[in-house]
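RECORD TYPE: inverse folding
INPUT: structure tokens
STRUCTURE:
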């Protein structure tokens, strides 16, 4: 499968073999989305906005996604179903046994005991990181604009959906990495400077497909979709240039053999070049 892109943001990077350029992919996607908007320049205001977007994607979204996607939420919740330990909290000293008030105090005591002995040791760090990432994301998005706030809320919803579909086990499908680490950063990079366009949306989805799959098939297919995007745009030269970039990647995959580790770390530069080429042509 394609090496996982999940890093938890620049503040929580962990190097892995085969990820020489993968760690920089979200920031590169942001830059390409901003370039595709047609409003990118070197003015101080534009550079400040670009810096805020990078902070949002890496320290905000990245930290939130890294925490949600790598924490075992299901394990502690399974133990809670049969949890009966914990003394009643002394909140209601005059409550009669078996009364609703007494049962509620008992439940609170069990919840506290479960949280201290089960949940916090397993998922406490993930919960703290997710909370910090969410708060930072909302604050930075609010500073950029309402459109970015809406996209951030959509990104959070997709991350939560990925966790739910994984049953909270901390191993969501690799396809979600393509969405959260490339597709969404490209879109926010574009949306922060100009309204999103259909060609830019298709390009973001195509490159997200390329890195979201479990083998060379989707890697090639995603970039092929990005190349075919320029046929209805009447830019046949772009189709040829992107095919020219795609051909050596295919050769490397053929020569390296089937294991993804044999070829994946070698083809990132061509993907980055294709993204930049597409962004500049839109």
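DESIGNED SEQUENCE:
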């Amino acid at each position: 499968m394609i090496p996982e892109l999940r890093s938890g943001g620049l503040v929580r990077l962990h190097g892995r073999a085969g990820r020489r350029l993968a760690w920089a992919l979200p920031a590169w996607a942001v830059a390409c989305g901003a370039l595709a908007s047609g409003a990118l320049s070197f003015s101080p205001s534009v550079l400040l906005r670009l810096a805020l977007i990078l902070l949002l994607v890496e320290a905000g979204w990245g930290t939130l996604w890294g925490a949600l996607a790598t924490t075992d939420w299901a394990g502690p919740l399974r133990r809670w179903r049969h949890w009966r330990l914990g003394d009643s909290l002394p909140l209601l000293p005059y409550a009669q046994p078996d009364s609703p008030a007494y049962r509620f105090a008992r439940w609170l005591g069990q919840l506290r005991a479960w949280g201290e002995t089960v949940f916090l040791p397993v998922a406490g760090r993930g919960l703290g990181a997710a909370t910090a990432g969410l708060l930072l994301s909302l604050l930075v998005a609010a500073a950029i604009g309402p459109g970015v706030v809406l996209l951030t809320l959509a990104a959070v919803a997709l991350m939560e959906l990925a966790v739910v579909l994984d049953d909270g086990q901390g191993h969501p499908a690799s396809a979600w990495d393509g969405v959260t680490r490339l597709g969404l950063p490209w879109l926010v990079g574009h949306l922060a400077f100009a309204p999103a366009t259909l060609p830019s949306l298709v390009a973001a989805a195509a490159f997200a497909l390329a890195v979201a799959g479990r083998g060379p098939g989707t890697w090639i297919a995603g970039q092929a979709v990005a190349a075919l995007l320029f046929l209805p745009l009447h830019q046949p030269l772009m189709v040829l240039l992107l095919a020219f970039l795609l051909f050596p990647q295919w050769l490397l995959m053929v020569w390296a053999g089937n294991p993804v580790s044999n070829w994946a770390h070698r083809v990132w530069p061509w993907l980055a070049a294709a993204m930049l080429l597409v962004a500049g042509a839109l």
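NOTES: The two ends are 30 Å apart (CA to CA).
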